[in-house]
Amino acid sequence: MNEYSGSIASVEYLVNLTQETKTAFFRGHSKACGKLVPRVFRPDVKIFEACEKCYERWFFLEFRRIAPGLEKRLPRRSDGLSWLFLMQHYGAPTRLLDWTENPLVALYFSVNEQLDQDGELWILEAARLNFDGLRMPGFPLPNNPSVSFLVEKATDCLSDTKLLEKFGLKNPPILPIAIYPTLTFLRMISQSSVFNNPQRDKT
């Protein structure tokens, strides 16, 4: 993963990079932070004291409770990944990070606010990340055991031991997983949305 701050990332550079790297994801911040933290793990989001797993699941259950008033067509209750995509669409705290396949979209988000400060642009070599973490080329399907493990860590309070047993894994995923979502919403289509589903940042 690379970070390009300030004026280093020119439009021409990004266009050329996109041609060279077909599986790159991009993310822009209008204020340089030097660190990527999913919203549900940010200190300013935590509104009550609770264990980490139950805290994250509280947001999930609360959103699912109010979702019928927001959307007519809802995911199946068992489809945790689609529920996380829906939560992300409405700005609810999740462990997902928004990325885009379009570098110009990321560049826009790096300059559209905080005009008196340098922004930053992140570039993720998504296919390489998945190969390093999953030892598989390309991108996993939603029912991939490692994807399902990380999704259920966000939506249930089962221990890692029980989740490993449930999905037939020997060890929990160490690296985040880059995911291609179903482009359900117009905003996702226009922004060429993609995601990655990281573990909790432990630094």
Describe the structure in your own words.
The chain starts with a strand and ends in a 6-residue tail after the last strand. It is globular, with a radius of gyration of 17 Å. The chain has about 200 residues and is α+β, with helices and mostly antiparallel strands. The protein contains eight helices and six strands, in the order βαβααβαβαααβαβ. The relative contact order is 0.21. Residues about 5-10 have low confidence and may be disordered. The protein has helices at about 10-20, 50-65, 80-90, 105-110, 125-135, 145-155, 160-165, 185-190, and strands at about 1-5, 25-30, 95-100, 120-125, 175-180, 195. The strands form two sheets. A three-stranded antiparallel β-sheet has the order 1-4-2. The chain has one domain.
Q: Can you give the helix content as a percent range?
A: 25-40%
> How many helices?
8
Strand order within the widest sheet?
A: 1-4-2
What is the gyration radius calculated from CA atoms? 17 Å
Nearest-integer average pLDDT: 81
SSE class: alpha+beta
Low-confidence stretches: 3-9
- Along the chain, the helix and strand elements come as EHEHHEHEHHHEHE
- What amount of the residues lies in strands? 5-15%
Q: Calculate the terminal CA-CA distance, rounded to whole Å.
A: 17 Å
The global form is: globular
